[in-house]
């Protein structure tokens, strides 16, 4: 199972909205096939592992980090692939929390006469797909909260930009958007997997992002006030979403509808734009992880 997790890392953060999955097939104590899911729309890990095993696939034990799918989507169900080649046993790292699957595959495999074992290295497998929403802030070495990234953010060896590649979207205040683009452009990052920027501004007219010509990666602006001079749905490449009330539930519902599975709430910048989201995250227990970045800065005692 640890080999499955190792394979998963070859497609780290590239499979969204699908989960990251690795699979290994074993026969007579030896690995005869292995595979991982590289990207949404492409074959799943089990299919690649069975192809790799070839004629040896019959009667293998298949180790898979996540319960195999049991439904038709962009690809056929993996349960059928496992049944058709007559695997002997399937060892599952974790049950798929998706209600479309959620143990139905296990039952289907058992009904087909296949031995199924569940929960091997479960905690390790769960860590591979641990979104949905994480929260982040930065502090100085002497414990002050930092509203901006600052020049010293570059001294962290590109940590922030690498962190962003783990997420489908990042929620941040409008005051931080330009600074994020500036720092990301100075670091060596894969722009193809940079997250969508979700900008929160109570008044869209005052948001500097509308005056920016740089909308790569994609930018979505959430605002409370109607726009008089601009289209209500887009302006200058920026998608605009007007809400009666900006709250974390509304933003997460939007992310869910768009297939965005992991979100980082960055609390730097103008906290007035984000204080409601900050409160919602804690009061509604919506956060799975808190990321605290300690930057090599020393702040005055009167700073927060």
UniProtKB/TrEMBL annotation:
Annotated keywords: Hydrolase, Metal-binding, Zinc
Pathways per UniProt: Cofactor biosynthesis; riboflavin biosynthesis; 5-amino-6-(D-ribitylamino)uracil from GTP: step 2/4
Record-annotated CMP/dCMP-type deaminase domain positions: 1-116
Entry-linked Pfam families: dCMP_cyt_deam_1
Cofactor: Zn(2+)
NCBIfam families in the cross-refs: eubact_ribD
Protein name (database record): Riboflavin biosynthesis protein PYRD, chloroplastic
Origin species: Brassica oleracea var. oleracea
The organism's taxonomic lineage, starting at the top: Eukaryota, Viridiplantae, Streptophyta, Embryophyta, Tracheophyta
């Amino acid at each position: 199972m640890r080999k499955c997790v190792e394979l998963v890392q070859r497609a780290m953060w590239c499979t969204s909205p699908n989960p990251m999955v690795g699979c290994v097939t074993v026969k007579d104590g030896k690995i005869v096939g292995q595979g991982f899911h590289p990207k949404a729309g492409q074959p799943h890990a089990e299919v690649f592992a069975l192809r790799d095993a070839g004629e040896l696939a019959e009667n293998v034990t298949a180790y898979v980090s996540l319960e195999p799918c049991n439904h038709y989507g962009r690809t056929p169900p993996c349960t059928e692939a496992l049944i058709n080649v007559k695997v002997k046993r399937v060892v599952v790292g974790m049950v798929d929390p998706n209600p479309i699957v959620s143990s139905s595959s296990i039952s289907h495999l058992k009904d087909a006469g296949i031995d199924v074992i569940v929960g091997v290295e479960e905690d390790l497998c769960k860590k591979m797909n641990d979104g949905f929403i994480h929260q982040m802030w930065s502090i100085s070495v002497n414990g002050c909260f930092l509203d901006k990234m600052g020049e010293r953010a570059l001294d962290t060896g590109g940590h922030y930009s690498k962190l962003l590649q783990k997420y489908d979207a990042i929620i941040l205040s409008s005051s931080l958007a330009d600074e994020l683009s500036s720092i990301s452009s100075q670091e060596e990052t894969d722009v193809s997997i940079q997250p969508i920027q979700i900008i929160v501004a109570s008044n869209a007219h005052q948001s500097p992002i509308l005056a920016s010509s740089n909308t790569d990666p994609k930018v979505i602006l959430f605002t409370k006030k109607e726009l008089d001079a601009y289209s209500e749905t887009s302006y200058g490449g920026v998608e605009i979403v007007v809400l009666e009330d900006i709250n974390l539930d509304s933003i997460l519902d939007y992310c869910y509808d768009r297939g965005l599975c992991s979100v980082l709430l960055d609390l730097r910048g103008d906290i007035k734009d984000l204080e409601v989201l900050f409160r919602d995250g804690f009061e509604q227990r919506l956060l799975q992880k808190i990321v605290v970045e300690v930057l090599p800065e020393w702040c005055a005692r009167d700073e927060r």
